Predict the structure of DNA polymerase I.
Amino acid sequence: MSTTATSPHPSTGQQDAGRLLLIDGHSMAFRAFYALPVDNFTTSTGQATNAVHGFISMFLSLVESEAPTHVAVAFDLPGGTFRTEEYAEYKGTRDETPQPFIGQVELIQDVLGAMAIPAITAPGYEADDILATLARQAQEQGLEVLICSGDRDSFQTVTDRCTVLYPVKGVSTLRRMTPQEVEERYGVPPERYPHLAALVGESSDNLPGVPGVGPKTAAKWITLYDGLDGVIAHAEEIKGKAGQSLRDHLPDVLRNRRLNHLLTDLDLGLTPESLRLSGADRSALARIFETLEFRTLHARALRTLEFADPSDHGRPEDDGPLERLAELQVAVLGHDLAPGALSAWLAEHLADNDRALGLDVVGSLRPVAGSAEIVSLSDGNRALAIDLTQLSVEDEAALEALLADPQRPKILADAKGTWHALTAQGLNLDGVIADVSLAAYLCRPEQRTYDVETLAQRWLGIDLASLSQDGEDEEQPAFDLQSLQADAPPRAALDSARRAATMGPLLTALEAQMADRQASELFTALEMPVAATLTLMEHAGIAVDDSVLAERAAELDSRVTRAAEGAFAEAGHELNLSSPKQLQTVLFEELGMPRTRKTKTGYTTDAEALAGLYAKTGHPFLAHLLEHRDAIKLRQTVEGLRKAIASDGRIHTTFQQTIAATGRLSSIDPNLQNIPARTEEGMRIRQAFTVGEGFECLMTADYSQIEMRIMAHLSGDQALIEAFRSGEDLHRYVAALVHGISVEEVSAEQRSHVKAMSYGLAYGLSTYGLARQLGIDNAEASALREAYFARFGRVNDYLVSVVEQARRDGYTQTMFGRRRYLPDLTSDNRQRREMAERAALNAPIQGSAADIVKRAMIDVDAALGERGLSSRILLQIHDELMLEIAPGEADEVEALLIEQMAAAAQLSVPLDVAAGRGRTWREAAH
């Protein structure tokens, strides 16, 4: 957040009692809504969250930068206030509330509730009156006050101990309105700002001022006549047109002054002291952020906020993990332990082969490009941190033997990354029995951070960061370090040793939780084995022909240039096609196109709006503009792929196992799951992915309509089951049933709409979301939904029963037993409840599909090994697997692949698998 520097506050003669942060909830929520595009902040269930995200991001920035001790947020209530009773037109010119904004204030209030931040309202009054009352009371009690508001009426509250943080750009840049700043900008001190506003009016409140009187004239009069009362008293003496205008509109001025005066004596039933921060509820915050799908913001909140609960389970007992960890004996190779002594130390202290070792690695955990700097081992009583640069030849041999020993059980976090880091140093890793990150993910899939520090606090009540202060924090004892040298051991080594020692207690706590959630078998039979398969896939990577990507980049450069030139020709001049302001001028002023949705900065030029505009007008400028945007997006994809090519000529993506609550895998650095598959440009990019040296071809195999097959199986709908058995194109067949026509009569649009309907049901898509996706109105989308359910009634029954069952149980469950807990199904908040209901529809189907694909990966990998084949799995793209085929193995592998994938689950309809092969990814498509 950008703010101007804070000046020291002059002494008031009172002891500083703290700092109160007050926020105008509706004002800042609206600003956040218009600052962030709706398209970029919409959940998978169709709920817009841009206002929520912007508001909470601003709030966390304020907590970080201002360090308040007391906080409250004031909100307006629907209906009128005493101001509208006097003047019905008050704020009457404000636009109708945008549809995507509706419900977001309630979601903001839910987040604030989880943070234990009071959300205050007062019937008949505005949020400004609440803020003014609390600001007065707080200053009387010695608190410093900050008011964050986009309403200029708040300037009248500014004093030497009350500053208004006024947004000048969205909600990310705030100006500090001090007494000096107000007077410099408006020519009057803060207490007289409402005098000025009474004269010049306030358009946002629909309060007209004196015609012909601007801020400079009003400020001059106020200064000359010592305030508004003096101006009114001397109105007859003021000459010229301005004076006459003042006299003609004195009733308006008096009304404005009555209405813009903020009340400071409301009976709110609370005091500023009751607004002292008490600590957020960690579990409640995790639930609401999961519902909103705020991953990065959740992690930021965990770093920024104080919490009332140190973990999900309270403080440990006296002999618990914290105490054992505090008494941990730590040795650091190269500091406490001389190089060359590692083998003897291991034999003396960690020789118990039955005792699992916690393992932690410091370094880069990326495939191929990984590196290890520190390796730490612990049996829970002792820990050893090893700086790999200090290893002697004998030390390295001893460490390698221990790490590679399959009989010595090891517990760690991020098993894939650890394997990559160690392999890069020439160290083999075997004997991994548990990855605590995966275990925690199965227990709480809604969480977004699974590092050891977070898990230790969440599940053990241990703040590892506090322990790292080596005794500076008296509440948590420091390590008892037996140093051989006078200087302190390296902090990174001690932190790593502490994490290694935490692995065992973490696994114990998580095993109990997995048992409660009946997730133990899912952990041992699915998540851990698939992690091993993914590790080898990441290490193998996929070969890429950079010359093909270079050719694609050049072609896309040309496309960008041609599209820009075409757009310039249609506009009649050059412009920045990425500038919303310039586009607004061209589209709506110069070319006279129909206006799109209005925003604070004009009319939106986002992708959805432009596509809709093009569908209406067919204007060639829009065709060139959309082509320009598409080409730039594809060019960025190609550039990202080229940068990701490793020295071995292959791209090594990282598969994330703990991101999606449904169990789906995602791919990053780079994302190989989002390369378009159904467009010519996407296929031209896929042409660059090729078979590697020593292999014969690539092979792909995917499930046909797996989500719909799972829907048919779970619902038992005979019409849908028969659709799969008919041999016809599924979506054409279903469209024929829905519309009561023959398969031959189904149009391309009807097939497309029914396909979107079918998959929308599987993904919990709302009627509103379906309408947006298809570009039709809500009534048409609702009619399509009703027609669909009229033909597939058991599907409707199933979807209703899923939500009802989840509401009773508190969770949904996949065919493999993967649970997703949804406490918001019983929430009093309608928006949160509806989001949870859509998630309940989504999780069993999408989660079952993800589990089936994981099961298939494990079985295919195992079958390849059992048969002694050299072919290997390279990629998983949701319901598709890609393999690199060794010479002479293609036919056998294809049969194996189809057999294993089809047998990954038993459904009432067959799991249809199709395979293809070729030298490139494009050629292997089928």
